[in-house]
Amino acid sequence: MRLRSLLTMTDLGLELVTGEDQLDRFVRWVVTTDMLDPGRYLSGGELVLTGLQWRDDPAGSDVFVGALARAGVAGLAAGDARYGGAPPDVVDACTKYGIPLFRVPESVAFATVTERITRNLSTGRAADLTAILDRHRQLVAGTGLGSVLELIERDLGMRCWVMASTGRVVAGPPPPPTEVTAAFLNARRLPHVLTVDRTRYSLFAVDEHSTSRAADWFLVFEGDVGDWPEERRALTGELAAVVSLERARQDDRQSAEGRLAQELIELIVSDAKPAEIISRLELTGLGPAESYIAVVAAAQADSLRPGELRVLLREILYGRGPAAGVVDGEAIALIPAGAEGSVIDEIHRAVAALEPGLRGSRLSVGVSGVVDGEGLRGAVEEARYARRLAADRHQPTSVVGHDELATHMLLLASVPDEVRRMFRLRLLDPLTNYDQDNRSDLVHTLETFLEASGSWTKSADLLHVHVNTLRYRIQRIEELTGRDLSRLEDRVDFFLALALR
User: Fold this and answer.
1) CB-CB contact of 73 with 48 (8 Å)
2) How far apart are CA 209 and CA 214, in angstroms?
3) Measured CA distances, 97 to 2, 19, 73, 92, 181 (Å)
4) How far apart are the C-alpha atoms of 222 and 96, rounded to whole Å?
């Protein structure tokens, strides 16, 4: 209940002495004390009743009221029995510390005040429980998180949002500032407070300790968490738990559609016949008359678990109705083809924005060209090759489209990993080791020489060295590798080895 409600309890006869602007505070409990410094026994939100027995001199008022303020009490009610009303120094201290002060008539016992308010608090808690159960009923019925957020805003005056790591607003009023997503992904610690246009926002993870931040949802509250009482801080944890349950409910892996999508992906990468793939495709809701794009994603080592990777890929492709599954550590999704360029552009933007949330690990994504139902296997293989090429770029995030596979890179992507590694090491290891031992720059010299199509003058200019110095370096490269850079075959081998780094 709010302090304002005390003035409506006419049977108690409480009168407000000071603090009219603070009457919207919530009362959590009632405590009676006449200790000079009761702070250690208070936890915030109490209405404190006192007979002023602690007051031996005016200086004690500052000590007593200051302790109440530091404890975060809701208000103070002073009895008339000893002084016939609150002395001026008590009133001044309450004004100084912003503590609402009520007068309790001598004819009203503190026990009566406590019993009456406690009864109201119990009734209010029962009403709150009813409201909470009603909101849970709505969640179970599938009405979503909106009603819960509306309840929080209406009853507590807290505007809040549930958002995905890609910046999508899962639930809440008109979108919060776009800066909150980047702030969430970049924050060293959570909760994190962000100021935008003089308004503060507090950011919390939904599953901070069990889900990678890049794959998590997060909560945005209007206000600074540092200014909140303990009850409001506790609310964030309760809301996070509700959101986590709702997110689990929306996870399609347990639905028939999700299981069919996983089976479809497994069929595509197996030796199943095209007719079998198309028949399963129809069960997922993607018709055979449409055209499709395959998207494949993988993360370095264990930075994202397979389930998280699949969830993240679906989030990146949100709104495009992806059918997704996980095979051999790769998340694979099929989406109906729209404007192909816009798909790749959207993925590029989403993946680049997610980079801070990866915490130093790498995320690689490959995108195929447009195919019909019979070309799905080829599309998935193409996207997987593109994904491997993206991983070879050794960048935190990398997206490669099928158009980049229309060159020698398509050939490289299709070669087994071990063969590619041995090919690269055989040609470049002698140069890399020599550079490390002698602080030279043979690898860079080789790369520049090939980029200049073997032009001595242009290469020397790019390297800022004399042509004779360049000739000496190329001769050293040939001696170390046993290759001849005047031969086209050897130049091609070096060019491919450099591309595999």
Assistant:
1) yes
2) 13
3) 19, 10, 11, 9, 37
4) 28
CA distances from 324 to 204, 262, 306, 374 (A): 28, 6, 12, 18
The structure tokens listed for 378 are 């080829």
pLDDT digits (tens, 9 = 90+) for 397-433: 888 887 776 555 556 555 555 676 788 788 888 889 9
Give the chain's end-to-end CA distance (angstroms, integer).
66
DSSP for 335-348, please give it: EE-SSHHHHHHHHH
Contact 258, 325 (CB under 8 A): no
Tokens of 219: 């909560």
Q: Using alpha carbons, select from 124, 111, 131, 158 the residue that is nearest to residue 5.
A: 124
- Residue 264: the pLDDT is 84
pLDDT above 70 coverage of the chain, percent? 88
Q: Is the pTM of this model over 0.70?
A: no
User: Letter for the amino acid at 127?
Assistant: A
SS (H, E, C) 397-409: EEEEEHHHHCCHH
Q: Give the contacts of 474 (CB within 8 A, at least 6 positions apart).
A: 445, 446, 449, 485
Looking at the DSSP assignment, which residues form a beta bridge with residue 32? 49
Could you write out the DSSP letters of every residue in 5-38? GGGG-TTT--EEEE-GGGTTPBP-EEEE---S--
Q: What are phi and psi of 327, to 5 degrees?
A: -135, 125
Residues 6+ apart with CB under 8 A from 109: none
Cα Rg of the chain (Å, integer):
34
For the segment 154-180, what is each residue's pLDDT rounded down to a tens digit? 777 788 999 998 888 888 888 788 899
Query: How far is the C-alpha of 338 from the C-alpha of 330, rounded, in Å?
Result: 23
Q: Which two tokens stand for residue 182?
A: 């980047």
Q: List residues bridging with 77 in a β-sheet.
A: 49, 102
Q: Find residue 199's DSSP bridge partners.
A: 196
Q: How far apart are CA 379 and CA 385, in angstroms?
A: 10
For residue 246, the tally of other CB atoms under 10 A from its CB is 20
Q: What is residue 371's DSSP assignment?
A: B
Q: Is 95 exposed, middle or buried (0-12, 13-18, 19+ CB in 10 A)?
A: middle
